Amino acid sequence: MLHQFSLSARRFALLTSCGLLLASTACQKEQDSSPSPLMSTSKVDAKEQEPIAVRGGKHLKFNTRKAFEKTMREIGNLAPGESAQTHLEKWEKAHNFLSLRAHKAKRATPQGTQASSTQNLTSSAQLLSSTQSASIIEEPTGGDEILGTYETPASEQDYLTDDFLASVLSPDYTVQIGENIYRLDAATDRIYYTSADNTTLYDELISTPTSPEIYWYPTDQNVLDLQEAGISGEPAASLRWTIGIGSGIGCGPNADRRKSEGGVIYSKNQRLDCKLVYESAGIYFSIIAKAQNQKKVLGIWWSQQASVSLLPRPGAMWEELCVGYGTSDFGSYSNSGGYGDNNTVSRRYYQSTRGLKSYNCTVGFAVGNAQAGPFHIEFAR
């Protein structure tokens, strides 16, 4: 009798234990299948920091300054062996956006340029195709055309050099950050802005702004810092910048925008075109060095494939406004092509939504046996 009771007790205990184990396992599965609040929040935050194309794809919208800064910081992170052009094309496609960079690139190809005739356009394309795979560079041959260094003609000068910035701007030079739409104006070297809520002002913003609801800053001002401090720009109709507080809000004015561009013509119809620029765009500042190998076809300089190198120099030095100390880059350079169609080399030394107090940068470039430079920009107080 005692034995039977003991056996029954053991069976009851075993069944109870199994029941508790099954309940525990079920609860654990339920917990495992439930999303982590932290993970969900992280994914939402990441999505909110991604820009979206708005107004039917007219321009990109960044929800916050932090989101804009994150993109500008990460947009230059290329995979090993990936060209910047391919990288930026993928980025723009992922955001369903036709950028200023893509717009300019299309115009810089034979198919994007109006030729005098279909025959000329076909000839140009065929000639370019025959030179695209050439890696051997013609040596200077002399002749009627003067060979050697040159200065970039005014007709070839471009307002923006930094392709990473051009990838987030529309062909109208516009972008939305937070509640404002900004537009860079090359003719006046200003950055205009207005509230994104006023949808009727966009066409005026990209033409000749006069509305009292459109304002501007000089492009050498730290625009986002000033706005966070509650300091508005000048009304669109105002002809002068009269706000004397300075872009650094007490730290003095920004460094001047300066550039050094030109190159070397190493045969009758081939050249290496080079640029070194402190890009000052109000909402974005950078030091960018870039060189492209080009071939002259039908009187126009087209991109031509060749291995372009950035020559080692002492490096770049700069001091960010209000920071109070300098930064330098004396590390190794990315000396091979790997930009675009392997015809261009590019290096972005500095980038930020805050400008610089001073800078000093020297670079040189080479393609084959032809060298160009040194190119130098400097600003100091």
In short:
With 381 residues, this protein is α+β, with helices and mostly antiparallel strands. It is 27% helix and 30% strand.
Would you kindly provide a written description of the structure presented here, covering whatever features stand out?
By secondary structure, this protein is α+β, with helices and mostly antiparallel strands. Among the domains are: 52-106 and 159-229, no CATH class; 247-380, Sandwich (Immunoglobulin-like), CATH 2.60.40. 27% of the residues lie in helices and 30% in strands. It contains nine helices and 18 strands. The protein has helices at 2-33, 37-48, 65-74, 84-94, 100-107, 118-132, 163-166, 202-205, 223-228, and strands at 52-54, 59-62, 148-151, 174-177, 180-185, 190-195, 215-218, 234-235, 259-267, 270-280, 285-297, 300-303, 308-311, 316-320, 326-329, 344-352, 356-367, 370-379. The protein has a seven-stranded mixed sheet. A hairpin with a 2-residue loop joins strand 11 (285-297) and strand 12 (300-303). The chain is globular. The termini are far apart. Residues 1-35, 112-137, 139-144 and 334-341 have low confidence and may be disordered.
Order of helices and strands: HHEEHHHHEHEEEHEHEEEEEEEEEEE
Number of strands: 18
Low-confidence stretches: 1-35, 112-137, 139-144, 334-341
Strand order, largest beta sheet: 1-2-4-5-6-7-8
Relative helix content: 25-40%
Number of helices: 9
For the record, give the distance between the C-alpha atoms at the N and C termini, rounded to a whole number.
104 Å
For the largest beta-sheet, the strand count, sense and barrel status come to: 7 strands, mixed
Task: Please report the first level of CATH classification, the CATH class of the domain at 247-380.
Answer: Mainly Beta
Tell me the radius of gyration: 29 Å
- Mean pLDDT across residues: 79
Per CATH, the architecture of the domain at 247-380 is: Sandwich
The outline comes out as globular
Class from secondary-structure proportions:
alpha+beta
